[in-house]
Write a structure and sequence with these properties.
Strand order of the largest sheet: 1-2-3-4-5-6-7-10
Strand content: 5-15%
Oligomer: single chain
CATH architecture: Alpha-Beta Horseshoe
Number of domains: 1
CATH class: Alpha Beta
Number of strands: 10
Largest sheet: 8 strands, parallel
CATH topology: Leucine-rich repeat, LRR (right-handed beta-alpha superhelix)
Radius of gyration: 23 Å
Distance between the termini: 89 Å
Amino acid sequence: MARGTTKPLLRRHKRKTAVRNWLDLPNDLTFMIFSRLTTFDILTSVQQMCHHTIDRSCGQLVDISIEYFGTDNLLKYIIDSQGKLRRLQLVQCFYTIFDEGLCEIAQKLPLLKEFEIILCKHITCVALEAIGRGCPLLKSLKFNHNGHSKGDNEDAVAIAQNMPNLRHLQLIYGCLDNDGVSAILDGCRFFESLDLRWCYNVNLEGRLRKMCDEQLKDFIEPNTLEGFSGYKFGKLCNANWYEDLEYTYRPRKKMFGHHIAENESQDNG
C-alpha cells in the first residue's frame, strides 16, 4: 500500500491481442474477402495496407504479389522503396497498370529474376522491351491471359530480342504463331522450359518441332488439356480462370501434350 492511504493501488494491465498473419489465410477465403470490397475500399484500405507493409520491410523486400488492386502509382512507390526485389507478380490489374508505369520502374529492378504478368490488359510488347533491358538477371517470365489480338508476334519478338538470359517462359493464351516461337528459340539460347498452352496459332512441325526437342528440357504444348496435373486452378471474378502457375519443372525432357494423350489412350484401352 502507498503511504498515507488505506486502499491498495490498482494497476491496469494492457490486454494482449493476437495478431493474425493474412498470409496464413486460405487463398479462397482471401479472394472472398477482397471480392466484397468496393472500388473505393480497394483504392484506400487495401492500398494503405500495402503501403504499410512496404514501409515496415525497411528496404528488405524481395518478393511481392499484387492482385486486383495494383496501380502505376503503387508500383512506383514499391520500387522506389525497395532495392532488392527478386520476384514480382501482377494479377488481374485490368485497367490500372499500363505500359508507361512498367517502363518507368523497369530500370529500377536490376536484381529481378522472376516476373509474372497475368490478366493485365494494358501491358504490351512496349513494357516487355523495357523489362528486358532493365532486368538483365531475369530468368523466368510468365505473361498470360493478357487479351491481345491473335496472330501477333510483337510480344514474342520483344522477348526474343531483349531477354537473352531467359530460362523459363510461360505464354498461356498467347497470340504468337510459329514465327514467334521460332524467334524466341533463336533469341533465348539458354531456354530450359516453355509453356504454350492454348496458343492456338502455333502448329509444331518440321524444323520447329526439332528445335523444341533439341533445345528444351520441358515443353508444354498448345493442345495440352485443361486438367494438366501439376497446376492448381483458381477462379477469379468475371468468370475468368487462371492458373496459379506453381508448376515444378522436371529434370528430364518430356513433351507433355503427347504424354497426356498417351496416358489417356492407355487408360481407355
